Amino acid sequence: MCESMEEVTQAVLAKNDGLAADLRDDLTRRGVSVVNLLSSPGSGKTELLGRVLARAVERGLPVAALTADLATENDAHRLARSGAPVKQLLTDGLCHLEARQLRGHVESWLPEGTSVLFVENVGNLVCPASYDLGESLRIVLMAVTEGEDKPIKYPTAFGSAHLVVLTKTDLAGPAGFDRAAFEAHVRRVNPGVEVVPSCARSGDGVDTLLERVLAVRDGAPVHRPPLTPRPHTHSHEGAEAGLVS
Fold first, then answer.
1. In this structure, how many other beta carbons lie within 10 angstroms of the beta carbon of residue 7?
2. Which of 133, 215, 216, 240 has fewest C-beta within 10 Å?
3. Helices (H), the chain
4. What is the pTM for the complete model shown?
5. How far apart are alpha carbons 185 and 188 in whole angstroms?
6. In Å, what is the CA distance from 203 to each residue of 50, 68, 75, 117?
């Protein structure tokens, strides 16, 4: 009897969730927090992440970064300017990262003593939203140039975020960006989630973002989004629970 596409998808996600849960437990024992960064292409997340890494290095914090793309090592070269350990992860055409890929790089590369691993996911707000990587913190980023209604166009991504970061705020005026409308759309899919405004060019929001990450590393409670993935049961039921137990 042939399985339906839905059954195949659920089986793939269930396997990924199991691997992610094991990876999270292992990293927790090692004192490592994973920050999963999701956005569409062109949001400015690489530039902002580079600023955050540089600030962490200035403070002597043991951080590292994995950056994922379908091709090229351009982003790894950009992020390496921060002085933090950085590795490129090429997905060979896959539009998202999965827990098995992250585990392989954690086991073979992660520098000893790292306390925060930033993972820059593939530029895509659809597929990556469904895959738990074993992260402690899921951050969804959006530029003011992308339009106020992005959160309701991509409800799974924004609805599964522990933190939302608004980027390129220096362009809000020229873009005619309506901040109030944007925040209303965010609240519609993820009530109570914090929105951090940022501008990599000026450095605005960099310290705030780093402090939020460090707070989670140090055990601060995490916002519980309504659509956060959790390990699937045998009946493949979805549920409303956070990535961090």
1. 11
2. 240
3. 5-30, 45-58, 74-80, 99-108, 150-153, 155-159, 172-175, 179-189, 206-217
4. 0.89
5. 5
6. 11, 24, 19, 21
